Amino acid sequence: MEERMDTHRTEGRPGSGPAPQASSGVLSVGGPQGATSALRRTARGGSMVTPDPVAGTEFWRDIKPIDKEKVFRKDAAPEVFLPDTMSDDDRFFVPLSETVFTRPLWISLAQNRWADVLMAKQPGLVNRHYHPHQVFGYTLSGQWSYLEHDWVATAGTFVYEAPGEAHTLVAHESAEPMRVHFNVTGPLIWLDENGEPNGTFDAYDYLELAREHYAKAGLGAEAVNKLLR
Hints:
Oligomer: single chain
């Protein structure tokens, strides 16, 4: 079956010609029985043709990759690829408190931002703090929550925190360690028991803390520097 996206026809105006024709670019997707669907796109869109899976399930094997010299723009930084982020090796986890630890995955000083795996092997606490910027969180294992909310996050839970939220993170007792992948834009503003600011924590603090821990753990500060983008 073919679906088409045609430019809107203008009718009833002097000098109006026939409706413009859609581009010949076609997006085809092979289905499990070899069925295909096509989306005709405008001239500004590219075209991508995916062959039907005629040999095995990895039908994309015969697609030509982009030439190596065209993958990255000039001066672009390479990707960060970490294959073992679910490792239990404690050396990779930087203490944030006595009970909660963070494994850095990516750090951007220019954006004041970092991505990590937050981990607690027992009931734990990250003290109350305020976020002036957004935070994304995806739970990998275990259970955790904020004292200020009535939900409990478990494996597969996604949380988006809009700018302007204050909370207290707690790790629950669970059969599995709490592991949460967070993407944080700093700074965090630490709060006292009355909710008043009493300190900050930004990407520079995070980098310094991680370098210090990695050096002590025998991994070397350079291992953290490789995460900088």
